[in-house]
Amino acid sequence: MTRLGVILSGRGSNFLAIADNIASGKLKAEIAIVISNCGDAPGVATAKLRGFKTAVLPSKGRKREEHDRAMLAALREADVDLVILAGYMRLLSPWFIQQFPGKILNIHPSLLPAFPGLEAQKQALEYGVQVTGCTVHIVDEHLDHGPILLQKAVPVLPTDDEHTLADRILAQEHRAYSEAIALVTEGNYRIVGRRVLLDQGNAQEKSSF
């Protein structure tokens, strides 16, 4: 079974959605370790309460690759197959990404390549788009850039502000991340250029999450 290493900096709501889907049997994987770069992150506190192996590796004042080497040691010790970024608010070093080629996933609250970086919901509102959403992608050396595994669209309502839009996108994130993890763990896809192509017979979107 695929062993997940979850890395987070905050509340970890996507981590909790993934954990719940594993517990219910919808997602065939196991969480091997939850790592946070912030000692006061609510997500790592919740992970401890749920009995998951955790590691707090403070990043403040440390060079990126130095911190990433410490994370890699913890991930290797936990025998992790797939790295899941669940609200990790720090860029990974190219060196770290090379240790897990094609095996680091991230979720972003926009339909990439639109609105990368911080405050994606605010960017969408200010630009005036009528549809935004979320994207699960494979991490490469560039910000919010790797091949796209899965996207979900969310309409922008006339009454939306940054917070209401973020809440509706987050609800879709909680579905999308588990769907994307299932896609990767089952291996029924191939990457051609930047395109993620599902194998024949596995092209239908998973709807159990």
Observed structural traits:
2 domains; Rossmann fold; two-stranded antiparallel ribbon; 34% helix; 6 helices; single chain; 209 residues; alpha/beta; 7-stranded mixed beta sheet
Count structural domains.
Answer: 2
The name of the CATH topology of the largest domain is: Rossmann fold
Distance between the termini: 19 Å
Query: Biggest β-sheet: count, sense, barrel?
Result: 7 strands, mixed
Shape: globular
Structural class: alpha/beta
Oligomeric nature of the chains? single chain
Low-confidence stretches: none
Give a count of the beta strands, DSSP E runs of length 2 or more.
9
Polypeptide structure, described:
The chain is α/β, with parallel strands linked by helices and 209 residues long. The chain folds into two domains: 1-101, 3-Layer(aba) Sandwich (Rossmann fold); 107-209, Rossmann fold (3-Layer(aba) Sandwich), CATH 3.40.50. Helices cover 34% and strands 23% of the residues. The chain contains six helices and nine strands. The chain has helices at 13-23, 42-49, 64-77, 94-99, 120-127, 162-186, and strands at residues 3-8, 30-36, 54-56, 82-85, 104-108, 131-138, 148-155, 189-192, 195-198. It has a seven-stranded mixed beta sheet with strand order 3-2-1-4-5-6-7, sandwiched between helices. A two-stranded antiparallel sheet has the order 8-9. α1 (13-23) links the parallel β1 (3-8) and β2. α1 crosses α6. The longest helix is centred in the last third of the chain and has 25 residues, at 162-186. The model has no long low-confidence stretch (mean pLDDT 94).
Q: What is this structure's SSE topology?
A:
Elements (H helix, E strand, L loop, with lengths): L2 E6 L4 H11 L6 E7 L5 H8 L4 E3 L7 H14 L4 E4 L8 H6 L4 E5 L11 H8 L3 E8 L9 E8 L6 H25 L2 E4 L2 E4 L11
Parallel strand pairs: 1-2, 1-4, 2-3, 4-5
Antiparallel strand pairs: 5-6, 6-7, 8-9
Helix pairs in contact: 1-6
